Amino acid sequence: MAVLARAGAAEGLWLRAVRQSAGRGRQGRPWIAPPGNLSASTLVRLGRQDPPASTLALVAAVALQEAAETFVGGVQIKWPNDLLIGGAKLSGILLERHGDAVVIGFGLNLAHHPDAVDRPTTSIAAITGSAPDPDVFLATLADSFGRWLYRWRAEGLAPIRTRWLEKAHPIGAALSARLPDGTSFDGLFDGLDQQGALRLRLADGSVHVIHAADIFLIRD
């Protein structure tokens, strides 16, 4: 289903799937979303003066977090753009670049959540007892994304980075990073560098800057 959403300072085309049976997440993982959840995508055309395209991952994260906390409390961001409630995964975001365009796909557990074997998951319905209508949630998300996209273009990454850090798990949180080559690191969250990469403080006091990895919270 296609939805044309007027989003604050910007207007963009959003596409929402009522059901997703053969979706794709990070690193080609399958993503299945039954009716009642949110599966939506939008497209951003890159301009010459825009910040690096990779930092749209942070824009998407702060926009989705802002939209989600309209309906449920305790929503945190995990690098680069997963949302968590109480350490359980609520959503995922996937970005793909095609020339001067970036397609951003949002998947959020509104009414249902999967039984994942590698990490805890949750949904808004599981927390609050009821789920927002996907169209209502999408309208909220489109408005939030439009405003943050405008700030990204007008002010650069700085306000996005600040908001991201405000809504992330705290500095010092224990994390495990699994890099694309299979290398793993455990350490403590040390914020973001100026380009939005993850800073992970290792046991020897050194800081490892991570640009791509699967990140897991280490639970007590």
Question: What is the gist of this entry?
Answer:
This protein is an alpha+beta fold and 220 residues long. The protein has helices spanning 56-68, 124-128, 134-155, 158-167; strands spanning 2-7, 10-16, 20-24, 30-33, 38-45, 75-78, 82-85, 88-98, 101-108, 174-178, 184-192, 198-201, 207-210, 214-217. Helix content is 23%, strand content 38%.
The total beta strand count reads 14
Shape by Cα distribution: globular
Q: What amount of the residues lies in strands?
A: 35-45%
CATH superfamily heading of the largest domain = Bira Bifunctional Protein, Domain 2
Report the major sheet: 7 strands, antiparallel
So what's the CATH class of the largest domain? Alpha Beta
Please write the string of helix (H) and strand (E) elements. EEEEEHEEEEHHHEEEEE
| Helix-residue proportion | 10-25%
Low-confidence stretches: 1-11
First CA to last CA: what distance?
A: 42 Å
CATH architecture classification name of the largest domain = 2-Layer Sandwich
- Tally of helical runs: 4
**Which structural category do the helix and sheet elements fall into?**
alpha+beta
Indicate the CATH topology of the largest domain.
BirA Bifunctional Protein, domain 2
How are the strands of the largest sheet arranged? 1-2-5-9-8-7-6
The tally of structural domains comes to 2
User: Average pLDDT across residues?
Assistant: 89
Gyration radius, in Å: 17 Å
Pfam family, one: BPL_LplA_LipB
Keywords: ATP-binding, Biotin, Ligase, Nucleotide-binding
Catalytic activity: biotin + L-lysyl-[protein] + ATP = N(6)-biotinyl-L-lysyl-[protein] + AMP + diphosphate + H(+)
Enzyme class: ligase
